[in-house]
Structure formats: structure tokens, C-alpha cells
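Record type: monomer structure entry
Structure origin: computed from sequence
Chain ID: A
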Amino acid sequence: MADAEATTDRTSTFYWVCAALCLVVALFLAADISKSNSQYGAAAWIGVTLAAVLVLALTALYVACATGRLALRRVAVGSLTLFHVSTIAVVAAVGADVLIPARDTGSLALLLPWGITYWLYNLKPAEDQA
């Protein structure tokens, strides 16, 4: 019976998928930078730096959740959970991405892993684990 319960919990798999999707977004960001960095001014480089740091931070968060070191329900600051902080990071990454020329919607791809974590965050915990 324990084997059947262990195989049905796919939460860590979803977190690994979220981490992989964030890395794909980072790869696309790196490809865009290498292709058009001659057009970049100071604002664009600030956008690149912010977007890269935020995407890598989201990736690290998802990996930590996948390995069980962190949980999205953990309180980060005051009443903000790690999920709320990740939401702020996604919004900031999309905003920073707008500063990069010819890349207005690149970080919008972060909405897919964020949507998965939104779903995981709102799942009801099993009665025996609560």
C-alpha cells in the first residue's frame, strides 16, 4: 500500500518540470543576448541582469521545492509565503524583460511554470500528511 501512495505523489516531478522550463527561458534569454547585444544601452543591460537573476532564483526555488528542502507555503517575510515571493519575482522578470530591445514578451514563458506552482500551492494536503 505504501508503494502505491509513493508512486501517486508527483509533486516533486512537477517542480523539476518548472525548474527545467525556467532554464529554457534562461537559454532563450542568453540566445537573444548573443544575437542582439550590440543594440543594448544601460537600461537594456539592467533588464538583462534583473531578468537573468530572477529566472535563476526561480529555478533555484523550484529545485529546492523538488528536493524537499523548501515548500511554497513556507513563510518568507511577514505574512508572505515563498509562493507570493515567487509571484513577485515572475512579475519583476517580465517587467525587466520589457527593458530589453526586441524582447518584449520573452519572460512571459515564465507564466507556465508559475501556473503549475499556483496549482500545486492550492492543492489540498492529504489528510494523513496534515
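Annotation 1: The chain has a mean pLDDT of 85.
Annotation 2: The radius of gyration is 17 Å.
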